[in-house]
Amino acid sequence: AGVARFVATEHGLTQRESEVMLLLVAAKTRRAICEELTVSPDTVKTHVRAVYRKLGVHSQQELIDLVENHGEANKAKESSSAQ
Questions:
Q1: Who's near 22: CB < 8 A, 6+ residues apart?
Q2: What separation in angstroms does the CA of 11 have from each of 39, 74, 83?
Q3: Do the beta carbons of residue 17 and residue 49 sit within 8 Å?
Q4: What is the dihedral of CA 43, 55, 12, 33, to 10 degrees?
């Protein structure tokens, strides 16, 4: 979740958008997000659209890949600077 939080901050996501993004990265469905955050499907749809727009992705899988790749890039950077 640390990488996802960094990505959220880096891309200027609001607190709620960050919460939605973390749930999307955890492979939650939109219905599960509605229930977990106690918001309507339209509200989730609005936040998902904003997250995708700000991060430049078009699907939940692209979002997951972006966060995972960001984490891998940071690990590589850390290991190369440690040498």
A1: 1, 4, 5, 8
A2: 23, 16, 30
A3: no
A4: 30
Tell me the Cα Rg of the chain.
Answer: 14
CB 55 within 8 A of CB 11: yes
Structure tokens at 51: 């997250």
Q: What is the pLDDT of residues 9-45, one digit of tens each?
A: 889 999 999 999 999 999 999 999 999 999 999 999 9
Burial class (CB in 10 A: 0-12, 13-18, 19+), 47: buried
Has this prediction a pTM greater than 0.85? no
Helices (H), strands (E): how many in the chain?
A: 5, 0
